[in-house]
Design brief:
With about 325 residues, this protein is mainly beta. It is about 10% helix and about 45% strand. The protein has 2 domains: about 180 residues, Immunoglobulin-like (Sandwich), CATH 2.60.40; about 90 residues, Immunoglobulin-like (Sandwich). Strand 1 and strand 2 form a beta hairpin. The radius of gyration is 27 Å and the shape is globular.
Length: about 325
């Protein structure tokens, strides 16, 4: 079975190639007719019972292709609770969610999908913050490499599942000019870098000197980061240093003749996605030692343009000479 992170990476790869989303997978707007309601509470984890956080600004948001704006707001009550009643309007694919601001960090509910959301779906968990060094673990690192396009460029998509196992939200200092909350190396020849779907916004990721740095706050729990870039054939083989343990390391390679090597990594059954076939390499509990090396076949070098011109002239001259001899015999 292919992991959800891997499916996300394949989906991003297909979108880059111009794939579209099946409209039948989008929920019908008829499900959302009439008044909608969300009831929830703001909680802060503690060793025993969680704290119920009062007097926090809570905002109901709507984000759609037609407009994006807050719809309503209130302060959480003495028992940490909040509630909103609203009506869905405009774009039927618009997303509605609730956000709470605590210690300068915004926390969100998942998108609201039911007419009346309550219980865990309405809970917003907030945390105290720290800028001290917290070890951010890597639960998963997924690398997907496409076959070469007409320009001999290959798309590379990386998806990370980052884990903050502490009880505090890790924050950097001084915004994008300060310290990053997490960083990883990318190949020096990477071009067209862009952040994909996930839990880290593109505005919070920068690339410089072969390093992708994250400046977004990282709350306790899992956060998914995905990005894509292009590599020329000359960049291969590429290597990724394994300087941190990885719970699950996965590589999908569309080229049938490529090679992948890393400690504890083995080739397993291939996977197919939207009629595209990928070789699959999988490793569990990969230690922080060595590196992941991926190589692909080199494209056959085309003939030198000058050589082709000269060859054409030689062949053309030979043909003219043969024609001249043929006419001279008549």
């Amino acid at each position: 079975m292919v992991s959800s992170a891997c499916k996300l990476a394949l989906f991003l790869l297909l979108l880059q190639g111009g794939a579209t989303v099946d409209p039948d997978t989008v929920k019908s707007s008829a499900l959302f007719d009439g008044p909608q309601r969300v009831d929830g509470r703001i909680i802060r984890p503690r060793e025993k019972d969680p704290d119920l956080v009062r007097d926090v600004w809570v905002v109901l948001h709507r984000v759609g292709s037609d407009r994006a704006a807050p719809l309503d707001s209130m302060r959480s009550r003495a028992d940490g609770s909040y509630s909103f009643t609203y009506t869905r309007t405009g774009d039927p694919e618009a997303i509605y969610f609730v956000a709470a601001q605590y210690a300068g960090i915004a926390y969100f509910t998942p998108p609201l999908h039911e007419k009346h959301e309550r219980g865990e779906h309405g809970e917003i968990v907030v945390f105290d913050t720290t800028s001290r060094n917290i070890d951010i673990g890597i639960r998963g690192h997924h690398v997907i490499i496409s076959s070469a396009n007409a320009s001999q460029m290959r798309s590379v998509t990386e998806v990370f599942e980052l884990a903050n196992d502490s009880a505090n939200t890790l924050v950097g200092s001084n915004g994008l000019k300060g310290s990053a909350t997490w960083a990883t190396r990318i190949p020096a020849q990477a071009a067209g870098f862009r952040v994909g779907q996930g839990d880290v916004p593109s505005a919070a990721v920068t690339v410089a000197d072969g390093t992708a740095s994250v400046f977004a706050p990282l709350a306790p729990g899992l956060r998914q980061l995905s990005f894509t870039y292009m590599l020329p054939g000359s960049a291969f083989p590429i290597s990724f240093p394994l300087d941190r343990p990885v719970s699950v390391l996965e590589v999908l390679l569309e080229d049938p003749e490529g090679s992948v090597d890393a400690p504890k990594l083995k080739e397993v059954d291939p996977v197919s996605f939207e009629q595209r076939q990928f070789r699959r390499f999988l490793g569990a509990e990969v230690p922080a030692i060595g590196e992941l090396v991926i190589d692909v076949p080199r494209a056959e070098k085309s003939m030198n343009r000058t050589f082709i011109v000269l060859l054409t002239l030689v062949i053309g001259g030979a043909m003219l000479a043969a024609l001249a001899r043929a006419f001279s015999r008549k």
